[in-house]
Description:
Helix content: 25-40%
Bound molecules: glycyl-adenosine-5'-phosphate
Structural class: alpha+beta
Distance between the termini: 27 Å
Mean pLDDT: 95
Amino acid sequence: MNPTDKTMDKIIALCKNRGFIFPGSEIYGGLANTWDYGPLGARLKNNVKDTWRKRFIQERHNSYEVDADILMNPRVWEASGHVASFSDPLLDCKECKMRHRADNLIDDFDPNAHADGMTKEEMFEFIKAHSIPCPHCGKHNFTGIREFNLMFATERGVTEGKKTTIYLRPENAQGEYVNFLNVQRTMRAKLPFSIGQIGKAFRNEITPGNFTFRTIEFEQMEFQTFCKEGTDTDLYEYFKEYGRKYYEDLGIAPDHLRYHDHEKLAHYAKAACDIEFLFPTLGWGEINGTHNRTDFDLTRHQEYSGQKMDYLDPVTNEKFIPYIIESTYGLDRTVLALLCEAYDEEVVDAEKGDVRVVLHLSPVVAPYKAAVLPLSKKLSEGAMAIRDQLSKYFMTDFDETGSIGKRYRRQDEVGTPFCITYDFESETDGCVTVRDRDTMEQVRMPIADLASYIEDRIKF
Length: 460
Ligand code: GAP
């Protein structure tokens, strides 16, 4: 399809109508920037998690997964710097009272301005000098810029006045850092080794979300590699490339991915780079970040916890605090990128104006791997037996309503790579027809070969 015809509105509509993603608590009018994954969305998301686990934990040497708690000792967030400086520069429109992020106002006004390299004062001057209007009411009358902390705070404790403020974690990374010693000791891990984790993170984002691109609750797949200083630069480059290859293997075209090296680095970081995806309507947006965090995190945790974070090199007997190379993947943004990449409107018959909507999802992540479709309701029993047999290996749908053509189209729309048609001959010859979603070609094969035929095509 023509790339300009692919819009975020079409993708949001498909997600909502086909059971991928619904607005959060919709029957109550929703809650801004929250979304619920439906049956197909949850399946897709879990399939992406499985690919990440395979590529980052299972296939790598010295790589360990943890599942740390969302709630952590609040000192963690003091050590990490989040209490002091995890904030957005916000300003209010004095006319309509809408609140905006100063950097977003600037970047939307001039994409070449690079607000991420500006101080708060420079941002304020830029907005003033260009009389940037409020996107809501169009007037230019703003308050000064203030920093708002993005962490969600809550309270723990039963006695009023003796409650402690604790936070919903704004990133997974600290769960990996505080377990550095535990994992190293129990796994007898030697540098370089990695700790990964998939889990929820929470940020009090005030900006409009652009669907699941920016939400207040989201999932990250984070991967921290502990290494010796001196080996960090090579590992950093390696994980940038590893991430890009991961996305390409998930089916994203190379020209829809690009690196964005950060100009302005956090004071502790030696290098930082995002992988961006070209979203329809939204443009380029970050889906992954790779960061050389030096020995900052473990040094801070040593300082705040009083626990030694040293690693003893078994060869040289040297003791030192390891460097960390972080590669972090936004799960929801990865899912959104895959849906956007896969969405297509294909002309099947130009004369008849016949266009099909199809998700060319990689079979690896597709919610259903196959759908069994009996040609007639009289054939349902035999077809259901195939569905039950295949579902022992992978997610298999069953659909017996509507014409066979309509049923193919329904499966195309949700990205099912194989449709299996069970017809009257199947009852006697033990064979079925398998239709390929992308080529629409059909092959006839014995029912006994189905599972291995499909399994061969859904490997990652
Ligand atoms: N531990 C490092 C860290 O959290 P980050 O760049 O702030 O780094 C990592 O976040 C990834 O999490 C991003 O690349 C993005 O994919 C995802 N992410 C961040 N904020 C998000 C939000 N509000 N909604 C959805 N995904 C988000």
